């Protein structure tokens, strides 16, 4: 631990957090205790035992917002402890969303509102006049003919950039229930930032298009509307069948062609993995890039051992985690540069 800190900035809470996590945690069972101890020391939080098997709340809650650095006593000072607040928020950004308290979830919703994903662009066939770029020979010659055949200036043009379509497929099966709320909130941020070039679907035992619901301005209303539209919430998972249904309808001449497709799933497959592997190959041929988001990837010692993940990964361009706000911030960059 001390050796790791010697190579890092000890004043950076994020660096201290990851140095301790990588050197002090011997396995997955140590992660919860480490998070609780770190939060207690740096943010003044009381260690808690995470509740397991809790059903995710997709709809809005009335939980009080997290007030970093607050105490039970009042010392009469109105000056906030900015260092403690910053430390608490930094810790929260790296916390697994499945283990957050209601107050932390409320604060996380405010952090989602601050996400500003950039739009991935693609070159179009159309060109426009530009001071830089390749020479527009046709326009240059026409202008020269109007001036007696003398070329007085080289006119240039360049390809226009247009938004590249982004398609999100969010797994809402039972195994993904602890992360469904956060993933759908991320999908809402993406849909609101790029309403004309973003599509959102949920997958489980049914394929449901929730793009219209995700375009609602208020995130809680958007998730409530989406929850009402999803018939297979917290059910089983048939990834291969759902991917086939998506590609059959939206593939060859639809929204998947040339798009950045983001699959958010842990890879648990109730059906056969051969179909999933074949449909992933098909998807990879159509899409510009395939990104797979698995919240479990961030766990220490994680290996993609499930049949679904092993079948899908050969056709995946970017394999990322989606377990925390920091991971979602990273995901926005992956999508932008895919």
Automatic annotation (TrEMBL):
Acidic residues bias locations: 72-81
Q: Which domain of life is it from?
A: Bacteria
Q: Where is this region: Disordered?
A: 49-81, 119-138
Q: Which InterPro entries match?
A: UCP010256 (IPR011195), Uncharacterised_CoxE (IPR008912), vWFA_dom_sf (IPR036465)
| Pfam families per record | VWA_CoxE
The protein depicted here goes by the name VWA domain-containing protein
Tell me what organism the protein belongs to.
Blastococcus saxobsidens
Q: What is the lineage of its organism?
A: Bacteria, Bacillati, Actinomycetota, Actinomycetes, Geodermatophilales
